[in-house]
From TrEMBL:
<feature type="domain" description="BIG2">
    <location>
        <begin position="32"/>
        <end position="107"/>
    </location>
</feature>
<dbReference type="InterPro" id="IPR003343">
    <property type="entry name" value="Big_2"/>
</dbReference>
<dbReference type="Pfam" id="PF02368">
    <property type="entry name" value="Big_2"/>
</dbReference>
<dbReference type="InterPro" id="IPR008964">
    <property type="entry name" value="Invasin/intimin_cell_adhesion"/>
</dbReference>
<protein>
    <recommendedName>
        <fullName>BIG2 domain-containing protein</fullName>
    </recommendedName>
</protein>
Length: 126
């Protein structure tokens, strides 16, 4: 059977299909994805120790990088970044997914007798 459509029928059909397309587009692509979230943006650890930072709201695969792998290294596994202090100093850890990135400032403190050595600003550590 062939049902001819008038010009009004074509316009109505086009409007209907356009509305369906818009609804499907909204459902398939819901808009802004929440940015990657880290549990801390500042971290202090001792040389030889490892600390973890929880990572949530990731969009796809997550990667992590240290600004200086001689001071601290980082690895990522199942929702956490693991940072290991190798030598005294400071680094920035960058954690990213396909949508966004976060930075974590890390201070690696020297260990003396198992305790971290800290000093007041401008006063050398002993």
């Amino acid at each position: 059977m062939n049902f001819p459509l008038s010009n009004q029928g074509h316009r109505d059909l086009f409007a209907y299909l356009a509305a369906v397309f818009v609804v499907l587009l909204i459902l398939v692509h819901p808009g802004d994805v929440p940015p990657l979230n880290v549990s801390s943006s500042l971290l202090q650890i001792k040389v030889g120790n490892t600390a973890s930072i929880n990572v949530s709201d990731a969009s796809g695969d997550v990667s992590a990088r240290s600004s200086d792998s001689n001071i601290a290294t980082v690895s990522y596994d199942h929702g956490a970044a693991f940072i290991k202090g190798l030598s005294a100093g400071s680094v920035t850890i960058t954690i990213w997914d396909k949508e966004s990135s976060q930075r974590v400032a890390v201070a690696v403190m020297p260990s003396v007798g198992g305790e971290a050595v800290t000093s007041a600003p401008g006063v050398p550590a002993t």
